[in-house]
Amino acid sequence: MISKRWRDRLVYIAMSLFLAWHTLAMAVAPAPDSSVIVQSLRPLLQPYLTLFYLDNNWGFYAPTIDLGQQFRYVIEDGAGQRHAFVPTDERNWFLPDYWWFWQWYTAIMNSPTVFGDFATAWLCQKYASLHPVSVTLLGIEEKYFSREDYLNGKHPMDSEFVTVNTLTTAECRH
Amino acid sequence: MSALATIAAFGKKMGASAGHAWSRFWFQSMPTTPLEIVRIGVGAALFINYGLATPYLYFLWGESGWMPSSLLFQDSIDIWAQSVFFYFTAPWQWAAFHGVFLLCCAALVLGWRTFLLKWVVLVGQISYAYRNPYLPYGADQILSALLIILCIAPIGRAISLDRVRAMRAAKRRNIKAKLSAYTSPWTGACTRLMQIQMAVLFFFSGIEKIRGDEWWSGDALWALFANVDYYNHALLDLFASQYWLVNIASYLTILIEVAYPFLIWQRRTRLYLLAAAVFLHVQFAILLGLPYFSFVMIMGHMSFLRPEWLARLGAWWKRRIGAMEMIYDGRCGFCVRSLVWFLSFDGLGQIKVRNFRSNPSPVVSDAKMERALYLVLPDGRALPGFEAYRYVVLRVPGLWWQVPFFYVPVFSRLFGHPIYNWVAANRSRLSAVRFGLPRAPAK
Fold first, then answer.
1. Is the confidence at residue B110, as pLDDT, over 60?
2. Partner residue opposite A68 with nearest CB, options B204, B227, B291
3. Distance (Å, rounded) from C-alpha B166 to C-alpha B322?
4. Taking the mean position of all CA atoms in its chain, how far away is CA B291?
């Protein structure tokens, strides 16, 4: 039987060890991997960081602010008419679904070969009332837009400031 | 030999000092109140966020959605990245887990069975994150970091239904019983851990920005608001005509993030840094469309609330409302049980009680007390029955959840008075009903 004094001491040591461990994990997770200290601690801490989803670098909008991307699609109906859509405009950005769908669109733009097929099939189904023949997915990449451009009455989405990439085109099967 | 003894004594002294400093840094006895605020905020954020996700459950995390497991497991996944969704096979399992998770989030907000259910919330949050790794962003990462600390902390000891249950148990033994606020060194350690987490987060967020050219030159906010995702015509109009504002705002963001981890610890500067951090996140919520992220961050900052600030706020509220005395019929079992239940929500101890059978009131006559419970206010006014309850629910924070029932225009009074009068007239009969409780042994 362990005496109360020793039990308290053991609890204190266990708590202290956990606090030191977790603090170390919090500090190492966002630290640059190029550091020798981080390289030596990573293998030890990685399972813990991964298990509890703590492996973050906290670099919000840093070090650089990426140029914007916008996902669009064009539905061609049976009469040969083309309907263009900007899906992010259909959602309220104060609601979480805006960001979930934004992430999906980003995934499609970054990996159209992986996510394109599902997206086109889903869109064919969504716009079934238009009797779609095909769906074309587009990725719009922004270019640098300066203050002078703005003062000259331009808009970041004007054709001269964007590059339009056709990600994929798929036929709708009925 | 004597030199060795001196070195040993010096080492022992140094060790003792280090141990003492370690204990003082981590293990200061603290109430759980700041962590309870974080608990309520985090629980509410998760409940709303995943509640709104319900229509998209299968689309975002299911097999029929855009990330089926065949795609997810195409590349090898770290064995430590686990999700309960990996083990589900039928759609009903997704729905059942989602329902249980939402209930647990609600329980976390209310502080019901917190000891156990907070772990389900943590497992759920991590499971959603790993089931579709494309969806999580900053808010989810911070939530996991805060939740793990909440899980190891002894939360649910204040501003919670667990506390109400403990209070009720004490008051059932003695209606005047008071429970002292729960404090423990481990609470202090967990609060400190969350504070360090927020400081580390701001530190890295700040120095990452300094590394970037746009932030360094003070043009970052122009680049941000010219970006199609955050395009803000009114703001760009202002920034284009007054470009110095872009510089100021960019540098101010870095200044707050870099100053925070150093100045938040001092008594004198803490309030200013907290206010600055909250200000920053309110801007993010409004201008970048990130209310979820900002709210979660603000909740993390709440770990820096000093318990004495909250105690002062409670004392101020108590002073402002003034003392209230509820006079009840101690011979009526139903009345006592109801009052015990009601008083269990009075966490600030604003209501005093008096049993008119053993301690008659100088303000309300016994004849009046035979008909209804009374509430005596600081100015000497006495409110009977329904009006007494109606007055109290608005003034006792723990009872605010009852305000909608007592303050519906016309209806509350229309139905409240007859219901109360009926209960008061039949209280002897109601006292005989045991509601499933065992009958008290005859004396």
1. yes
2. B227
3. 25
4. 17
Q: Say how far apart CA B204 and CA B216 lie, in whole Å.
A: 15
Size of interface A-B (CB pairs under 8 A): 150
User: How far is residue B6's CA from residue B15's CA, in Å, rounded to a whole number?
Assistant: 14
Query: Mind listing the pLDDT tens digit for each residue in B296-305?
Result: 999 999 999 9
Amino acid (one-letter) located at B319: R
Structure tokens at B96: 């059942």
B126 chain-A contacts, CB cut-off 8 A: 51-53
pLDDT at A174: 67
Tell me the shortest Cα–Cα distance from B224 to chain A, in angstroms.
Answer: 7
Yes or no, beta carbons of A115 and B227 under 8 Å apart: no
Residues of chain A positioned with their CB less than 8 A from the CB of B54: none
The helix/strand/coil state of B114 is: helix
Report DSSP state, residue B84. G
Edge-to-edge strands, sheet with B351-355: B351-355, B324-328, B374-376, B382-384
Q: Check residue B136 and give its pLDDT.
A: 95
Quick one: tokens of B234?
């009114």
Sign of the dihedral defined by the CA atoms of residues B49, B54, B58, B59, in that order: negative
Closest CA to B99 of B144, B171, B51: B51
Q: Least CA distance to B77: which residue of chain A?
A: A50
User: Which of B227, B254, B283 is the mutation pick for testing A, counting most A CBs within 10 A?
Assistant: B227
Asked whether the ipTM of the predicted complex exceeds the cut of 0.90, the reply is: yes
Share of chain B above pLDDT 70, in %: 97
Sequence letter at residue B321: I
pLDDT at B342 over 60: yes
Put simply, the answer to whether A23 touches B56 (Cβ < 8 Å) is no
Taking alpha carbons only, the member of B208, B214, B421 closest to residue A146 is B214
Identify which of A108, A125, A93 has the alpha carbon closest to the alpha carbon of residue A167.
A108
DSSP three-state, residue A139? strand
- A11-65 pLDDT per residue, tens: 999 999 999 999 999 999 999 999 999 999 999 999 999 999 999 989 888 889 9
Count of residues in chain B: 443
Using alpha carbons, select from B332, B326, B325 the residue that is nearest to residue B425: B332
Of the ranges B73-77, B82-86, B215-219, which one carries the lowest mean pLDDT score?
A: B73-77
Check residue B159 and give left, alpha or beta (phi > 0: left; psi -120 to 50: alpha).
Answer: left
User: Phi then psi for B329, rounded to 5 degrees?
Assistant: -95, 105
pTM above 0.95, yes or no: no
Q: What value does the mean pLDDT take over residues B382-397? A: 95
Separation of alpha carbons B17 and B427, rounded Å: 64
Dihedral (CA of B80, B136, A142, A83) sign: positive
**Helices B2-26 and B185-211, axial angle in degrees (round to 10):** 90
Residue B191 in contact with residue B219, Cβ under 8 Å?
A: no
CA separation for the pair B192, B200 (Å, rounded): 12
